[in-house]
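From the pipeline queue, job 12 of 40. The input is one protein chain; the requested action is below.

Action: predict structure.
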Amino acid sequence: MNKVLYKPLNMVVSAAGGVLAGIAFKQIWKRVSGEEDAPSATDRDFTWTQVIVAAAAQGAIFGAVKAATERAGAVGYRKATGDWPTED
């Protein structure tokens, strides 16, 4: 029964992770490039390399933050309930 509680908790943790990842990427991009915003794929003022590097960096940051927040949520759930959320 407790594992039913994990799904809404995981949704909240995932949403928070997405927000944190967006903030982290924006700050890292600003420090590395000196630009306020990363180039979009359709922005003609940037080269292919700039667009692809920005997308790869964004993907890596989002992936790492997502993994970290999901792991933290699972560990917190285990500490609170004694169960790992994905075990049957």
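Job complete. Residues 3-81 form one domain.
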